[in-house]
Write a structure and sequence with these properties.
By secondary structure, this protein is mostly helical. The chain is built from ten helices and three strands; from the N terminus they run ααβαααααββααα.
């Protein structure tokens, strides 16, 4: 009974001392707990570290990168309330089978909570704090705002934070101009950004890129029978739903016949 009381008191203390996330609805964050952690680590190692970061609005982030990150990190992001119970269940089952922690189940909102306010530690109480902050973020911000902050603030390399700084560091271009191959590499590197460089991809990162590209491309529906004396049209790529635009069709395809609707897009969970 005493243990339960102590645990309840500790959780209550954590809740009462949580950060106020409401200003994020209007204000862009300028620093994160991860930025400070990396600076402290560099200082302790006698190394100088410059943080590279440049905020860009949601409209200037490549739709290809948005789509790549969603299919890689959190395919159900726009459907859940910050915590993906189905993915957590799959993660627990996988880790139980393997006898060790191999698969995570953090949603994009959970990752944002961790990056903004916490640390990479796997301490159970740190996880409780992360979940509580996640619920606050989901209550205070729109999904688009959460995703905008996430893409602008997460770690993408040694001293590199946010998609704009990463795109310029790795490809010498603005994030808005990333092509599909570059977007898939960037998304694949999120799992361990200080180990995987999109500019010099490891074999593992290249494998992840191919998985992501397959998830970003969609099998076209069977074309409708063409009327007699008309040239049949090839079906286009299946379009993804809002907030992503329809990707341009390959050069060997043409628009679908009138009235031919393509099925929607659905992801399959995180890539490990």
């Amino acid at each position: 009974m005493l243990v339960v009381l102590v645990l309840f008191s500790y959780v209550a203390y954590i809740y009462l001392t949580l950060p106020d996330v409401r200003p994020l609805a209007r204000q862009n964050p300028t620093t994160t707990a991860f930025m400070q952690l990396r600076l402290d680590e560099a200082r302790a190692g006698g190394r100088k570290l410059s943080i590279r970061h440049q905020w860009v609005p949601y409209s200037r982030i490549s739709p290809l990168l948005k789509r790549a990150v969603i299919v890689t990190e959190d395919a159900a992001f726009f459907d859940h309330d910050g915590i993906d119970l189905q993915e957590i269940r799959a993660s627990l089952e996988k880790n139980w089978e393997e006898g060790q922690f191999l698969r995570g189940a953090s949603t994009i909102t959970q990752q944002l909570a961790k990056n903004l306010y916490l640390s990479p530690s796997r301490n159970p109480m740190r996880k409780v704090t992360e979940l509580l902050i996640t619920r606050r973020l989901e209550a205070a911000l729109t999904k688009q705002r959460i995703f905008e902050i996430y893409l602008n603030m997460i770690e993408w390399g040694d001293g590199i934070f946010g998609c704009e700084a990463a795109a310029r560091a790795y490809f010498g271009k603005a994030c808005a101009n990333l092509d599909i191959q570059e977007a898939a590499l960037m998304a694949g590197a999120i799992i361990n950004p200080r180990e995987h460089s999109p500019a010099r991809p490891t074999k593992r990162l290249l494998r992840r890129q191919q998985i992501i590209l397959r998830r970003m491309q969609f099998k076209p529906p069977a074309p409708a029978p063409a009327p007699v004396n008309e040239t049949p049209s090839d079906a286009p790529l299946v379009p993804v739903p809002l907030p992503f635009p329809i990707p341009p069709p390959p050069s060997n395809t043409s628009p679908p016949p009138p009235g031919n609707k393509s099925p929607g897009f659905g992801g399959t969970g995180s890539i490990n």
